[in-house]
Amino acid sequence: MTAPNSAERKACWDAKDRLWKCLDDNNSKAESCQNFQSEFEAKCPSQWVKYFSKRRDFLKYKEKMESGFIPAEGPQQAS
After folding, report:
1. Can you give 9-72 as a three-state secondary structure string?
2. Is 5 helix (H, G, I), strand (E, B) or coil?
3. Which residues have CB under 8 Å from 4's CB, separation 6+?
4. What does the pLDDT profile of the chain (79 residues) look like in tens digits?
5. pTM of the model as a whole
């Protein structure tokens, strides 16, 4: 697979930006953004799709942590 040229990269990033905006506007409900998801997957290499999906998850988690979210400590041991 050859690397995407600048027009293909721009199309991929634009599709990613539209998908992320839709997800932000719809409280991350993927069902509401299927058209954008399909466009994103069609315009971006599969490795980029995986990367951007993980990147979004990480950025959302980081945003939660910075706003004071405290994750659960895990299962409690019975004494």
Report:
1. HHHHHHHHHHHHHHHHHCCCCHHHHHHHHHHHHHHCCHHHHHHHHHHHHHHHHHHHHHCCCCCC
2. coil
3. 12, 45
4. 678 899 999 999 999 999 999 999 998 888 889 999 999 999 999 999 999 999 999 999 898 888 887 767 766 666 5
5. 0.77
